[in-house]
Amino acid sequence: MRAEYINAFYLATQDVFRIMLDLETNRSGLRVTEELVPFLEANVVIGVTGDLTGSLLYSFPKEMALEMVKIMSGMEMDELDAFVTSAMGELANIISGNALTRLSQQNYNCNIVPPQIMVGGGRSLSMATPQAIVLSLETAIGNFDITISLTDRS
Amino acid sequence: MMWKEKYRVGAVLIDTQHQELFKRVSSFISIVQSPRLWDEKVEEVKETLAFMQEYVVIHFSDEERFQEEIGYPERERHRAIHSQFRGVIQNYVNRVAQEGYTQELMQELGGRLMTWLIMHVAGEDQKIGEFLRSQGGGHES
Questions:
Q1: Could you give the ipTM of this predicted complex?
Q2: Residue B111 and residue A85: Cβ atoms within 8 Å?
Q3: Residues A83, B1: C-beta atoms closer than 8 Å
Q4: How far apart are CA A21 and CA A103, in angstroms?
Q5: In the predicted model, is pLDDT for residue B141 greater than 60?
């Protein structure tokens, strides 16, 4: 998997977090994994089709997801209900869309499949690639991961 | 409170409408998320949803007209984004017709609408402000 894919997701996340949450995001790690497993509580899976195909997994700790939705809504949130998970799904959708717009400038034309929400982790998901990259990010309200499993079909 | 001062575009009409829209989305979400029994509040959910939906339509169409008036160069792209989101709302209208006003569906709609709207106003709509400033300032109408 090429570095430019990872960078597109990093930059898109940074932009969206700044615009929507007034939060800075910093890279805290990058590692290779052979499994797509959501380890944290609030997870969003997004499928990618087109020149690049595969899946993206956004994994957030529960407290962080609740805080993010609190920042957006101005309301206290105390559980990962359909309102919170839907907001998280849309946020991951927006980040992925922005990342794919960046990749389209490098002539990769892709579409995204509507987000799938998973609360609670543990179950392994099928991957389009033998290996995926886990991009770990830190913010002032918590740390989260984006696992990128994309294969080049162009 | 969902509205933030940084969401201002610099055109009175658009900023006033955005504030009203955020207020209506906020009151819809407050009712949906309030700790009352769903059956006791479902009528209020329907009313606030209709009130909000009506304003989304008014605002999108006024904003599109405004973009025509000022000759905003990205108006076609912006119109397409509005149109795509109208499709998302219509999809929920169809689901309500089939599934009814269930708590889960209304929560899903609320979460999606809020997030989309914030990103649209704080991101895409700010480009209208940038264009206005490049043309010599804000807009009074």
A1: 0.92
A2: yes
A3: no
A4: 24
A5: no
